[in-house]
Amino acid sequence: MRCVAGRRWIVALWIYALPVALGAGVGPVSPTVVYNVSSLLPVSKSTDPRALDTFTGFNHNMLHHQRWDLSLASLACDLNLQVLRYPGGTLSAFWDWRTGWVISEADFEAHCPNSTSYKYLQYARQYNGTALYDLANLKLYVETCRLRNGAEPTVNFVLNMITRNLTDQMAMLKQAEAIGVQVRLVELGNEFYAGALRCVTDRFVNASVYASVAEQWAATIKSEFPLATVSVVGREYRQSDAHTPRVANWTQTVAQRLASTEVDAITMHPYWGGGVGPVSTSKTSFWGTLKQQQEQLDNMQQPGAIATMIASALRKQESTVLGYMHNNSWLRPWRVAVTECNVFDRIGLVRYTWTHALMVAAAHVALLSGPNITQAVHHSFDGCCGFATTFTPPLAGYFGGRLVPPLPNELVIEANSLTSTGHVLQLLGRLMTAERLNGTAVYPLAFNPPAPVLDTPGPLPLPGLLGVVVRYSKGSGPLQPRPTSGAILLNLLPDPVPIHWTTTPHWQQANATQLTALSPKWMVNPIVNRSQVVVKTYSLSRGDPDWIAPPFSVTTLTMA
Predict the structure, then answer these.
(1) What b/e sequence results for 58-90 when a residue is b if at least 16 CB atoms lie within 10 Å of its CB, and e otherwise?
(2) Residue 19: its pLDDT value, please?
(3) Distance CA 515, CA 513 (A)
(4) Which of 251, 254, 361, 461 has the fewest other C-beta atoms within 10 Å?
């Protein structure tokens, strides 16, 4: 394991919690109060200077589209996210990289004889005999981004450790390098702690067996690709896991077993709930019954509901990732790669709303502010059930099963447009790719007077203003340009907030971009076209550093 500076941990966590503590007991925003913003001491991300080069990204299941074409790749590249996870999550265990599709039906049954009803078997039967999402098609995406953005995204290769062997997967990585797709991120499987499939539990009876095999695979990968970051399967903390022996100690077993090996990071997937009930548990309808939908819609429009929903995203990161790392000495030295996150797909009507976008933005800022967290990969690029960042044809499945207003004829989707989360992730992606980052630290923001808190119940008050500064790598010597910084600031409150921007002593000019919903209606209704999101750009100077953060807004700034 490539250890990080553990001695910075206590300071860093205190810094992360400071805006929360300072916000306790603060009332509503006063229009006469100006909030002075300054950046705090650095939070260590990693000793690897490349760590923040691969922070943002998206997971993708190409079974929805079968392969990239120029139009689809261009849409994805315009998100400016730094990482593409290939070939995806769970399906990686059944992936044949040579065909660019899931393994054959016969192959599936040979490896998983007791899982013949599993959903990926149906895709095996659909194979048309031609190469689909293979490495050549993956390169089309990478090359399209290079031509459009001037830089190539990083591919996070999720290896098939269930139905393929190490020799086969090494051949894939070597072939990728041979055709010009760099091997920088490698993930050794996906969510193997789950015991749903016999072929997974037969292969990895428990976490110790997985760790032993992962150690061997990591050593072989590093011998061929010494600069690659290799991650292993971990599990974020969930209280309910205590009742499932396979899951309960998975992360601790893996972390301790691999502490002095070639493994660099542990993955986690902190999905969160919507914060308002009821929650549908149906496996056939992702929206729930008419009664459930109506009850949830009523709940979403109650006073304080938006704050409660946003808080659910923040508290999930605090309890399952940040707090988990802080409370366990065996986990603190590790880098953590969050390679999937989003609202859980069966949560209901919050999906596609502007509230959903703010939940995703808040989760990303929380993870960016946390020590040693080096990735926050969104699930996913497209697909049904509220996960998508884009509306891509066919569009019929996006709101299939939604029974409450707005009525289907009001949900006229603009094809190839961004969803609410897509708008926010594109803004964050553009900030993170604006320059090459100095990836060893970030700087959480402090507010004076203290930021008002979200009006929501819970064990700890949560700040209504949240933000972080990232430092770019331009030099600071006498013959070099001034250092450049980027910043993200979220106003999660229903009021505009006056800001006095004093974050760093060296900046002279700043360019800002703000996103807000067109009206409060879209906080609880789906955003389906560009006109429902307001984009504002403006400039700040050292001599005039005051501006207004609109209600429920996301602002990014590039400072020089």
Answers:
(1) bbbbbbbbbbbeeebbbbbbbbbbbbbbbbbbb
(2) 34
(3) 7
(4) 461
- Is residue 327 within 8 A of residue 333, CB to CB? The reply is no
8 A C-beta contact, residue 300 and residue 349: yes
**Mean pLDDT score, 214-225:** 98
Highest mean pLDDT among 108-117, 194-203, 206-215: 206-215
**DSSP bridge pairs for 230:** 186
- Map residue 148 onto helix, strand or coil: helix
Per the model's pLDDT, the better-predicted residue between 74 and 458 turns out to be 74
Give the global pTM: 0.92
pLDDT at 11: 27
Residue entry with tokens 């050794």: 188
What residues contact 63, with CB distance under 8 A and at least 6 apart?
A: 88, 91, 102, 123
Which run of H or E residues covers position 511? strand 509-517
549, amino acid identity: A
User: Per the structure block, which two tokens stand in for 342?
Assistant: 């989003």
CA–CA separation, 370 vs 316, rounded Å?
Answer: 13
Which of these ranges, 47-56, 379-388, 426-435, 525-534, has the smallest mean pLDDT? 47-56
Separation between Cα atoms, residue 340 and residue 270, nearest integer Å? 7
Per the listing, tokens 């049904």 go with 384
Preceding peptide of 87 cis, ω within 30°? yes
Contact 296, 278 (CB under 8 A): yes
Query: In whole angstroms, what is the distance from residue 471 CA to residue 495 CA?
Result: 29
Residue pair 265/334 in contact by the 8 Å Cβ criterion: yes
What does the CA dihedral 7, 12, 17, 23 come to, rounded to 10 degrees? 130
Supply the DSSP string of 256-295, one letter for each residue: HHTTTSS--EEEE---B--SSS-----SS-SS--HHHHHH
Question: What's the rounded Cα separation, in Å, for the pair 446 and 20?
Answer: 10
How far apart CA 263 and CA 246 sit, in angstroms, is: 22
- 156 neighbors 339 (Cβ within 8 angstroms): yes
In percent, the amount of the chain with pLDDT more than 70 equals 87
Residue 491 parent element (H or E): strand 485-491
Quick check: 261 and 215 in contact, CB under 8 A? yes
Mean pLDDT, rounded, for 128-145: 93
Cis peptide preceding 278, ω within 30 of 0: yes
Sole residue written with tokens 């509306």? 391
DSSP string, 33-99: --EEEEE-SPEE--S-TTGGGG-EEEE--GGGTSS--HHHHHHHHTT--SEEEES-SGGGGGEETTT
- C-alpha closest to that of 447 among 35, 40, 42: 35
